[in-house]
Structure formats: C-alpha cells, structure tokens
From TrEMBL:
GO terms for molecular function: phosphorelay sensor kinase activity. InterPro entries: Bact_2-comp_sensor_kinase, dCache_1, HAMP_dom, HATPase_C_sf, HATPase_dom, Sig_transdc_His_kin_internal. It is a multi-pass membrane protein. This is Sensor histidine kinase YesM.
Length: 611
C-alpha cells in the first residue's frame, strides 16, 4: 500500500469511522433514553388524567348519594305514576314535588348528566323517569333483571356500578355516555326500593383531554379508554370508538398491570404505547404516541449527523486529493527518481518547486545526487588510473615471459649456426615488439591475427615438428576491435603445456564468430588437457593462496604458477576493460585437449558465421 492510501486509511480509520461509531452509539442511546423518559412522562400524564376522570365519577356519586339520603328517589318510587299522585295527601304531594324539584335543580347544575331514571323493584311501574331524553327508551325492568348487571348491582348493595360506552348498548343506548347504576334503599327501613340509572355525557371527559397541556413532541398523542377485553370505550378524537385494540396492534396486551409502556406497531405505524390501570375500575387509560413525532429531534440530529459526516468524507477526499496528494505526489516523484538512480541513471533530478519542506526534500535529493555524481567521477578517474596501472603491470608480466622464451630459442639457433632461422625469428620478434610498444590498447582483429601468426612461426622454429596450426577468421570480422596481446597467451598455454611430452603432432585451431553482439574467438588444441585441479586455478577472483596449492615439490608449484600466469592475465585484462560478463571460458579434459573461448563485445565488423 502506498503512502497516499495509508494516509487516507489512517484518516478514515482514526477520524471518520470513530466519529461514525460515536454518532451511532449516541443515536441509539438517545433513542433508548427518549423511550424511557417518555414512559415516565406518559405515566405522570396518565395518572393526572385518571385522577380527573375519577373526580368526575366521584362527583357524580356524591350527587346521587344526596338524592338517596334526601329520600327523593324512595318518595318517587311510592307512586305508580309520578305525574298523578291521587293516593297520597296534598301535603305529601307538596313535599314530594319540592324534593323532586330540588333534586332536578341539583341535576341542572351538572350539565354533563344526559339522562336519569329509576327502576321500581316493587313492580308498581316499569321505571320512573327523572330526566327525559328524546329517541331513547329505557330497557324494560324485566329484561334488565335477566342481565348480569342486575345481580352485580344488587350484590354491590348501593355502591355505584359504572358502565362505559359500547359495553352494554342495550341498556345505555347507542349514544356514547357513561352510565352509573346503583341500588336505592329506604333510609329508614334499609329496604331495597329501586335501581337508579344516571347517564353522563362524554362532554365532561372531552373537556378533560381538551384542557390537557402537552409538550410539542406529544401533540400527536392519542388517549383511549379501554376495558380489560381491549374494547375501546372512549376516544376523544372519535376515531376508534367501539373497536378493539387488537385490530390496531400486532401483539396482545395484558391489562392487569398497574402501568406498562412499550414500543409496538399501532395502526401500521411505529408507536410508543403506555397503559395505566384505573384504580377500582375494570378500565385502563391508554396513550398512543407516534414514534416518528416523538423522535423527530433525534431523527433531525441523525440527519444532520449524516450530512456532517458526508461533509467530513468530502473534506477528507478533497484534503487527500489536493493537500495530501501534493505531499505524497512529491514523495512519489522522488521515489520514482530514486528508482531511476537504482537503475543507473545518475542524471535524474527532481523539479524544485514550492516554499515548504517539500522544496527542502527535493533540493536535498538533488544535492545528494550532485555529490554522488562528483564522487562517481572521482572514483571513475581513480579507477581508470588504477586500471591503467594494473594493465601495464599485467603486460609487463607477459612481455618478459615471452621475450625470455624467444631469446632463449634464438640463442639456441645461433649456437647451432642457423643464421637464416635466426634472421626470420628476429624479424618475427621485431613485428611482435612493434605491436606491443604501440600506445593503442585496442587493435583490429586483423592486426592481432598478424601478431599471432608471427608468434606461432617463432614457436614453430623453437618446437619443430611438435605442432601445427590452422587459422580461419571470416573477413567481415577482421575489422572488429580487440585488446592487443589477447590471443598470444592462449596459444602459448597450449604450446607450452598442452603439447609437452606428446608423441604425436599437436594441432592448434583458431576460429572466430559473432553471436548476440559479442565476438567469440575459439582456440582449440589436441594436447594433454588439464585436470579439474588445474582448471580451478583459472577461476575468476580466486585468492592468491588458493592459486598455488601446497605441495612439497617446488618444480610442480613453479610450473603451476607459470601455467596460470598468461591466462589469468588475459582474463583479468578483459574483465577490467569490458566488465565481469566477459572473459575466458575454458573446457578441458585428460586426454582430450583444451578449448578456450575468448568472449568480448563486438565493437565493429559484421555478423560473421561460425567458422
């Protein structure tokens, strides 16, 4: 991974992702906190509403208590028909009328009362109306006695029994009213005289919810009054009166708990539902708040957080593209130029621009390359001088060796009075020395072959009938460049050591060809060959102590040193001049002769064929 991607990954991993995780964590914690706090707030609200509802019931119970204590209801029940009271005295009639008038006045002070009547348990009449209402007919007392409410009212023995809307429409009618039913007794004899039925308009309950002040986030809250079977008894908004809660929910509800709050689907929308049990009544007050409205602030925060996070990402990309790209781009350019330097291009320079640390970095790289170039030039000059000195030493090692052998041969011929041969050898030697003393280090292959022929002719004078030679060089290769005195040591090795002590005529074959841009000179003899130990002496860069194996025989050691001197000198000269990939490649076996390939770069001449 490059530096640019690392920086962007670090920015993403250390800033953006932690910010995202923190935001999500805060979001979910806030969501849970909202639900918990709303549950507490809803509990307080439902308790306050239930307190107001219970006050309405208590107030109405006090009104009916007053009527029972004042014997208004018992007096009314004494007559078969309250409109005609002929069987009682005028005084009693006046008292009855006054009591009923007082009770009606008291009822008028409570406009929430919709209707009131009495069932006569003595069966003198079906019922005694106290408050009339159009389009409503009371259930006959005989039918009422058959209902389970009758038994409950009698068992309560005067304690009020409340019936909510839609629970028992046969008794309360289709209008949405709350109905109080209670037993009426004679306060003197405690005899059961009748049953009072009082209906309360929903207006009183609507006033409770209308005057209820809610926070802004709870304005969409719906309040319902349901019984233990889930029947919706009262809905201030009149949207779901008479329906069952199960029709709106995707789960069942246990209405036995005093208070519970949970989140669930209501009418297809995610909502928070809180339920409070009305104390002493089989009803529960339910609040339903849409979760979207409840969490709108958190949702808005989440949206803003996403927007801010998106802006951070855009800023990160822009920062990475414009600012970090400049830093990493400059570093990448310097790295690219460093790789060019690794490949050997010491002229590589980085463009210097800007006014910050990147300029110092680029300038430092360029200054370093200038110093390296100066050092390379210095080392190159020193190496050139060292190489020239080394090559002069190598040539000095070759020339005395050859001169010694040649002069020794001329001396022998002179002693034998071979004047003509001495003259020829002197001419050949002069030709060789003429080439050797030239200032040029490289000559053409043609000149080197001419020099080689002079050398071979001298050696044939010395070793008459010992060997013969054959030279086959394509004409197109004669113009190739080669270091002078390269081939002489190769054939000298074959003559001095390969043909030593053989009982047959030795043969030297010199060929040349061009292959893959290189000039290859092939020198082959059919002499004695070399052992693997002798071949190891010619390994390149072998330490001096390995070149001369320990031996107790001084002559063998001297012979090994002399045998390797010429070939090692040529190999070292070639590698110093052309590089380590060039040099001498020797293959030899006993018996079988020796093959030497001299490989140098082809600086001139055509592509010759194997000759």
């Amino acid at each position: 991974m490059n530096l640019r991607n690392k920086l962007f990954t670090a920015f993403l991993g250390l800033i953006i992702i932690p910010l995202l995780v923190l935001g999500l964590f805060t979001f979910f914690v806030t969501y849970n906190s909202i639900e918990k706090k709303y549950s507490q707030q809803a509990e307080y609200s439902l308790k306050a509403i239930s307190y107001s509802i219970l006050n309405v019931f208590d107030e109405m119970e006090k009104v009916t208590d007053t009527g029972i204590v004042s014997s208004v209801f018992t007096t009314a029940l004494k007559a078969d028909d309250p409109a005609s009271q002929d069987f009682i005295t005028n005084a009693e009639q006046l008292n009855l009328n006054a009591s009923q008038r007082n009770f009606r006045n008291m009822l008028y002070n409570h406009p929430a009362i919709s209707y009131a009547f009495l069932y006569n348990m003595n069966k003198r009449s079906s019922h005694v109306p106290i408050f009339t209402k159009e389009d409503f007919g009371a259930m006959p007392f005989i039918d009422f006695q058959k209902s389970h409410f009758y038994e409950e009212v009698v068992k309560l023995n005067g304690v009020p029994k409340w019936i909510a809307p839609h629970e028992y429409p046969e008794l309360t009618g289709k209008e949405s009213v709350f109905t109080q039913i209670r037993l009426v007794k004679n306060m003197e004899t405690f005899r059961k005289e009748g049953i009072l039925v009082v209906q309360i308009k929903r207006l009183e309950f609507e006033r409770i919810f209308r005057n209820l002040t809610l926070p802004n986030n709870l304005q969409d809250t719906s309040f319902l009054l349901v019984n233990d079977e889930g029947l919706i008894l009262f809905d201030p908004k009149e949207h779901s009166d008479g329906q069952n809660m199960n029709a709106f929910m995707d789960r069942g509800i246990d209405y036995g708990s005093e208070y519970q709050s949970f989140k669930s689907k209501f009418d297809g929308e995610e909502s928070v539902i809180s339920i409070h049990k009305l104390e002493g009544y089989p009803w529960s007050l339910v609040s339903v708040t849409n979760w979207a409205s409840l969490s709108q602030e958190v949702t808005a925060f989440a949206k803003w957080f996403i927007v801010i996070l998106g802006l951070c990402l855009v800023t990160a990309v822009a920062f990475n593209k414009f600012f970090m790209n400049r830093i990493t781009g400059t570093i990448a350019i310097i790295v690219r130029f460093m790789r060019r330097v690794e490949d050997g291009d010491l002229s590589a320079r980085v463009e210097e621009k800007g006014e910050d640390e990147l300029l110092l970095l680029s300038r430092g790289f360029n200054d370093l390359m200038d110093r390296i170039n100066r050092l390379f030039d210095q080392i190159r000059d020193e190496q050139r001088l060292k190489t020239e000195a080394h090559m002069r030493v190598l040539q000095a090692q070759i020339k005395p060796h050859f001169l010694f052998n040649t002069l020794e041969s001329i001396n022998v011929l002179a002693v034998q009075n071979e004047g003509r041969k001495v003259s020829e050898m002197v001419c050949r030697l002069a030709s060789i020395l003429r080439i050797s003393i030239q200032d040029r280090e490289e000559i053409t292959l043609e000149e080197e072959i001419k020099h080689l022929k002079s050398y071979l002719e001298i050696q044939k004078f010395r070793f008459e009938d010992v060997f013969d030679y054959e030279i086959d060089i394509p004409k197109e290769l004669l113009s190739c460049r080669i270091m002078k005195l390269t081939l002489q040591p190769l054939v000298e090795n074959s003559i001095q050591h390969g043909f030593e002590g053989i009982d047959y005529t030795g043969m030297l074959v010199i060929k040349a060809w061009s292959e893959r841009g290189n000039l290859i000179v092939h020198v082959e003899d059919n002499g004695l060959g070399m052992t693997s130990q002798q071949l190891s002496l010619f390994e390149y860069m072998v330490p001096e102590e390995k070149e001369s194996p320990q031996s107790g025989e001084g002559d063998l050691k001297l012979n090994q040193e002399r045998r390797g001197l010429g070939l090692r000198s040529v190999a070292d000269r070639i590698r110093i001049q052309y590089g380590d990939v060039y040099g001498l490649f020797i293959c030899s076996s006993q018996p079988g002769g020796t093959v030497i390939h001299c490989v140098i770069p082809n600086y001139g001449g055509g592509e010759g064929q194997h000759a």
